[in-house]
Amino acid sequence: MSERPVVTRDLGRRLVRQRLGNWRPDVYWAREVSFYDPMMRVDFMQASVRGRVVGADIADRLTFRVFEVKSSLADFHSGHGLNFIGDLNYVVCPVELAPSICLELPEQVGVLVPGPWNGLDSYRSAKRVARLRSASEMLLMMQRSSQRDAMKWMKGATDE
Questions:
Q1: Which of 45, 83, 96, 116 stands the most exposed, by the fewest C-beta atoms within 10 Å?
Q2: How far apart are CA 54 and CA 155, in angstroms?
Q3: Strands (DSSP E) along 11-153, which ranges?
């Protein structure tokens, strides 16, 4: 059996545990977020509120972070899942993959690698870019993905 699914699952769990899983009222996330026109999917997306929203449209205060998980160089070169559509974009990969991936990524894309205590460390920082999709579309696609996961969970909970 390939080690790739195990590595992908470990990287995803580290990401959720450290970067996404801590509940805060100003941070939202979803996994496997799909978009249309053109058709694409990102592994994880996070929306967080910058500053106070009193008297401002919350959409103007959102930062979207996109995380693409790559378990191997073959996965990285597969042509799937290098959809950097957020304000800040990251690749999450094994430590030994980071140097070669950095050579091929745009300089504004950050790289996260496994660190101690089941967390992730920054191998290279992400730089903010101008997002091409509206906050409304990003939030709607995140909500749809979250609803899909909730429905899967509900179905599993009722099958027992």
A1: 116
A2: 39
A3: 27-35, 40-49, 62-69, 88-92, 110-114, 120-124
